[in-house]
Structure formats: structure tokens, C-alpha cells
Predict the structure of Metalloregulator ArsR/SmtB family transcription factor.
Amino acid sequence: MNDSPTDVFADLAELARTLGHAHRLKLLSHIAQGERSVERLAEMCELSVANASQHLQHLRRSGYVQTRRDGKRVLYRLGEGPIANLLAALRQLADFNRSAIRELLVDSRARQDRLEAMSRLELIERLQDHSVTLLDVRPPEEFALGHLPGAINIPLAALEQRLAELPADQEIVAYCRGPWCVLSVEAVAALRERGFRARRLDTGFPDWQAAGLKVETVV
């Protein structure tokens, strides 16, 4: 027998209730970038190991995360299903509501080139003919856990000092954590000011991964 509508909404409410804590969302956000131990997750979220473990158990019971044992360590990864898509949607909504993003969107009317983006489909086509250079402006740890194939990792803060690593004769496509992540926006603006042809990807790494597209890691 199919669940009644009331049962469905009760299930949805329970799933939403599990996510109703900032620490759990932060933990999930880090796990979405790649598999990590509870100790590392606790450090990244500025929590005690015991506190992080408690939140992770809630996430595990609801299917948001899975675990595996590596020697004495317990490693966490995202559970099955469209969890990365859910996180991306929540992040987009939250970012859209932030005043800084609203100001950026208003500014874009006068400076449209700052937000000009390349679609995922166009990027896939351009990667096939090797006509673009991919620039990942996330922190090195996130890049190591997973990135778009062939991407160069130069965090935004280091871009000024490492411009020589980028080809001057090829279009550069910058990406970061998602469509509203300002790191790639600022990277594109900085590159264009220095004479580079540059655009940002209209999504980010979590969205690329959620779409089932190929990713690379640093071993």
C-alpha cells in the first residue's frame, strides 16, 4: 500500500528536522566535498569529537551520511540519493537571501560581465576540444578531495602571485562551490582586469559531482 499524503509529509518533516541544526549542515557541507574522518570533521567545524559524533549519528540515522572503517578511523561520506542536490539547493536559497549576494546581483546590472557565466553543457563541449583552461579557486584541501578533470588549483588569495601559471592565449573558466559562490566571480573580475579572457562556470563542484560527471582527486 502506498503511503498516504500525511505519511509522506511526516517523513519530509522528519528529514527536515534532522537538518535543522547549523552544525549538521556544516558537517554535511564538508562531507559533500569528500570522505573525511570524524576527527577531521570536528576540527573543521570547531566542535569537540564527541559533539561532532553526536550530530553525525543523527545524520546517519536519517540516511544523510554513511560510514566505513579504515583501521581505527571511522570515515564519513554522503549517503545514497540526491543529497548533494539538496545541499546545493539549500545553499543557493540561503546565499540568494544574503544581502551581500543581493547587492552583487544589483551591481551586475551595471557590470554584467562580472557575472557572465558558461553553462555546464558548453563547458563539457569546450573541454572536449581542449579550448579552455579550468581554474578551481577553492582551498587546496577541497581541491584534493575532488575537482573537475584537468583543473588548475589556485585559491583566490593566491591568484595575483600565480598569474604566470595561466595561459594568456586561452579562455579561463573559474569555478568554486556553487552558482552563488563569490570566489569565482571575484577571480573572473581580477583576471579580466589583467587582460585575460575569463568566465565563471554557472554551477560549482558539488553540482558537477551531483550530476554524475567525472571528477578527479589528488592521491
